[in-house]
Amino acid sequence: MHWSTIIYCGIITYLTRFSMIFLLKEDILNNKTKKILSYVPSAIFPAIIFPPIFLDSAGAIDIENNPKILASILAIIIGYFSRSIIATIFVGLISYWFLIFVYYQ
Amino acid sequence: MNKRLKTLTRGIADVSPLMIPVVPFGIIFGVIGMELGLSPYMTFGMSVIIFGGASQIVLLQLFSGGASSLVTITSVGAVNSRHLLYGAVFSEYLSQLKLSWKVILSYVLIDQAFAVSNIYFRKNKENDFKHYHLLGAGFTCWTVWQISTILGIVLGSVVPEELGLSFTISLTFLALLINDFRKFKNIIVMLVSGVVATIGYNSIPFQAYIIVAALSALLVATLLTLINLKKK
């Protein structure tokens, strides 16, 4: 990792926040564009979530005996009902620890 | 109480409950930075220079996968493209301000600050000092994020690797999507993104799988939006 990469990332991130405030006098994005931008988290986060869960360290798809899949399903269920970010993370992590340290031992 | 101070305090109070999940998120970021062997200065520097939790974790993940800086910077830009929406929504409230105010407030225009100040701005259009609300909310987030990053950096040097804390990256992002689990269209978009990324992880060159998966999923989101508009 180079400092220059971090600085460029910082500049581009800042510009995503500053550009619209600087350029626009009033809100001109139409509802369609807004609706599509509202999908950005749903479109990007799973690309970060899925590969480390479903792929093993060699990069092959691993579905059998995969504690991460089970722990993620539990986390999704808890997240769906509780709508609590913290509960989702902790249930996922604790069930993962249970699986790797107790169940699969 | 002075109106500026009152609005500033209101911003701090409004955003405070949203800070509870930010603390573990910041700690996770710091811990993983340390586990990947980054220097504490660099990890902390990322929190100050970028100040965007999700994109900082993407940066770490792509770094550990050996992605080029071009792919890394593009991916970070893609993750943060949602801020364009926030800026566009706030432009009408902030257009009267001096440039220096716009420069400062842009730095702290993050998800949580947007969420609470957007509600406040809509209800308090006549308050000439309404931007103090965003200032208070934004810098509260900033302070909490920096402190939790430092906590993570400190913990990262003592947490054993066997705990598999890198799994918390997936869990954290999963948790950020919980409000969308009830929306059918969002679930389709999520599945497209996840499946394309998993299949493309090895086959798409330069670790560009996040960008390719996100673009495919956004294309589907666009189609779903257009179909929906036609029906109405």
How does this model look, in words?
The complex is a heterodimer of chains A (105) and B (232). Chain A is built from five helices and no strands. The longest helix of chain A is centred in the N-terminal third of the chain and has 21 residues, at 3-23. In chain A, helix 4 (67-82) packs antiparallel against helix 5 (85-103). Chain A has 105 residues and is mostly helical. Chain B is mainly α and 232 residues long. Helices cover 75% and strands 0% of the residues of chain B. Chain B is built from twelve helices and no strands. Chain B has helices at 3-15, 22-35, 40-49, 53-64, 69-79, 83-94, 99-107, 111-123, 131-156, 167-176, 184-203, 209-231. The longest helix of chain B has 26 residues, at 131-156. At the A-B interface, helix 1, helix 2, helix 3, helix 4 and helix 5 of A face helix 3, helix 4, helix 5, helix 6 and helix 7 of B.
Note the main attributes of this structure:
A: 105 residues; mainly alpha; 5 helices; B: 232 residues; 0% strand
Tell me the strand percentage band of chain B: under 5%
Number of strands of chain A: 0
Number of helices of chain A: 5
Mean pLDDT level of chain B: 90
Percent in helix of chain B: over 70%
> How would a crystallographer describe the biggest sheet of chain B?
none
CA radius of gyration of chain A is: 20 Å
Query: Helix coverage percent of residues of chain A?
Result: over 70%
H-E string of chain B: HHHHHHHHHHHH
Rg for CA atoms of chain B: 19 Å
Distance between the termini of chain A: 37 Å
The description of the largest β-sheet of chain A is: none
Query: Which spans of chain A of ≥5 residues are poorly predicted at pLDDT below 50?
Result: none
Assign the structural class of chain A, choosing from mainly alpha, mainly beta, alpha/beta, alpha+beta, or little secondary structure.
mainly alpha
